[in-house]
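worker-03 picked up job from queue 'complexes'. Input manifest follows; two sequence lines, order preserved.
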Amino acid sequence: MSASGLVMNLRAIWARAYVRVVGANRELSWLFFDTFLPLLGTSAYVFIYKAMKAPPEFTGFVILGGAMTAYWLNVLWNMASQFYWEKEQGQLQLFLISPTSPMVILLGMALGGMFMTTIRAGSILILGSLIFRVQFTVQQPLLLALLFFLALAALYGLGMLFASLFMLYGREAWHLSNLLQEPVYLLSGLYFPVRGLGFWVAAAASVIPLTLGLDGIRQLAFGGAGWGFLAPEYELALLAFLSIVFIYFARRALRFMEELAKREGRLTLRWQ
Amino acid sequence: MHPAIEVVKLKRLFRKKQARRSWRTVVALEEIDLEIQEGELFGVLGPNGAGKTTLIKILATLLLPTSGQAFVDGIDVVKDPRAVRRRINMVSGGEHSGYGILTVRETLWMFSQFYGVPGKVARERINELLRVVGLEEEANTRISRLSTGMRQKMNFARGFVSDPKIVFLDEPTLGLDVGAARDARNFIKSWVKDRPGKTVLLTTHYMTEAEELCDRVAIIDRGKILACDTPENLKRRVKKDSIFHLEVAGLDSWEGLHEIAGVKQLVSTPRDGFTELKFILDHEDVLPQLLGKITERGSRVLYMRKTEPTLEDVFIELVGRSLEVDTAER
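worker-03 finished. Artifact:
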């Protein structure tokens, strides 16, 4: 890539991220919808664990799970199905006729989404931890930070892969997002240690980056005595692998889908 | 030197689903040839479904042709779409660009960044475009709060924010009020005139727009280019004919009027309480016979005038129906 191409792509990434970084925080209603409401749902699990007299770290697991749910919802609804919405609005074609690669647009969406969601997830984490007096015993903060960022990279890589697949489809994309939302709550162990699902189910569920990310973060934030799925170092390596795989296939899929959609005349077809 | 746009035997077919497992092939473009020179303001005129948007989508690298070739600034749109995209921009009438949460200025800036326009240049260009389209006062208004017309003005500005070499305008004045449409047309004219080397391909079904703006016009219908020339030369095709415009009350049927010797074309448009008829006659001598036939049926001629040929008449002569009726029917 030439220097001017690189500069153009960086400008495009920032421009597309700007919508989420600045624009999405303009309406403060998000404080209620994206922080208070998810916290209510998370609280239900906290009370269940308290009623069951589960070890105190389980409260922390649930709060962490609640915070990470924000990322999953963002990936599902603001990454995966975003190109579908852009197409419905007639905006996708404006992205595609620009010299910027659609992958760059997706990257901008991902970075903007990560920033926006980190504010929401951070708010849930801070509020939840204060309300339920969660005690963190962070060991290896560097590893924890690395694991968190790789989990996000893999998760948004998956979102980019979905986005390229969804670009071609109409309502099916919407239904698929609906279909994926709840099962992932279960399979990724958002509200309980994933090891509880058994090794093979947990191994299969590890294709969802949330599973490994959350398991590793919990182990490093609360000490992983007996309930961690894999050692955090292994989870880190697997997440790095997943990030590369998802981003690579997202790029391939995007090219393939764009060509297919151009051939079939579905790139600009609305109201499918 | 290569033409700004060149189209060689361009064909595009679409498969349309009719029933379960039943498909119909629709010809959107049928082996058309076209050459547009740098600096030209070229119009493609035709009814809805004629193939205008398909042509623009192929040239804008959004659609692949079934066969044939298309070149923009000498670059094959199929082989090197990225290089084509560096040179073009597009405005479609009635499009919805941008995000409601961003302001007009931010939206234009966002799109300028997709073309790598440096910040300072983008700011100056945006200010200029906002002034031209009359949106200076709304520059910091969120686009969710804009009226449809204002939004269309912003879309229009968006198409020029990258200062493209070639711009595709697909029904750009659709949805604009009379004043805004006039401003948009003036801007298009001056944009091409003041900047040597810029080319505009405009599709429209407004005759006056094509006539007022375009250096040359291609008349397209059902995927075929029926004629391509300057508006003056096109009108010359019907100059020797006599064109009459009639408003007739109580006309139930115009059967038989076609058969009168010397009537080349007849187009009728039902209006509220009367029928509007447009005749293209070989010569004026046919008129008394024609009026006789109309009054014989008990119809009353409310209004009649002889008109100068327009592109609409050229379209009627070529296609055998009015563009207005055709567009309304589809």
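worker-03 released lock.
The interface with chain A takes residues 12, 14, 57, 60-64, 82, 85-86, 88-90, 92, 95-99, 101-102, 106, 109-111, 113-117, 158, 162 of chain B (CB under 8 Å).
Chain B has three domains: 1-87+165-232, 96-163, 240-308.
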